[in-house]
Amino acid sequence: MNKAQLVEAIADKVGGRQQAAEAVDAVLDAIVRAVVSGDRVSVTGFGSFEKVDRPARYARNPQTGERVRVKKTSVPRFRAGQGFKDLVSGSKKLPRGGEVAVKKAPKGSLSGTASATVKKAAAKKTTAKRATATAKKTVAKKTAAKTATAKKTVAKKATAKKTTATAKKTAAKKATSTAKKAAAKKATAKKAPAKKSTTRKTTAKKATATR
Hints:
With 211 residues, this protein is α+β, with helices and mostly antiparallel strands. It is 66% helix and 13% strand. The strands form two sheets. It has a three-stranded antiparallel sheet. Strands 3-4 form a two-stranded antiparallel ribbon.
């Protein structure tokens, strides 16, 4: 059984696959963190997890028989509880499906640090989810605000362009009207002297005829 199969096995008991995956991840993470920090995680009826220090030593390569020096290291160790051993050996019968194979651990059976680690891991996940949700909302708000501002800016620019175009048209019309009026005045001014000259010529002709 791998991790995915373990999740599927407990999915119906915890309310769904997602809840089962989160539960398995939280338990494994808490156990690993506790053991790495040097704590012993003990589950009544199941077993205990602990960190064991191995001093530097000499060993032999099984293939070549050569003597090799092994550095000091630390390794995790699991010791099965008596209830687990009895079930595996057959001295006790395994309960049918749906029943608890290993007795539920009473309060305080886990080390205090391990329990605190489990709580911290769950709290971290909850905080992370809330932070992610808040960040998404903030990003959405900022995006909406930027979009609205961009639309307003575009609308203002369009209005400004229209106003400028209208002003140019009005100025052009005024200039054309003024030019037309000036041209009309000039034409009128030129025609007026011509009439006076004709009148003078007529008067001169009349005076000559009288003589």
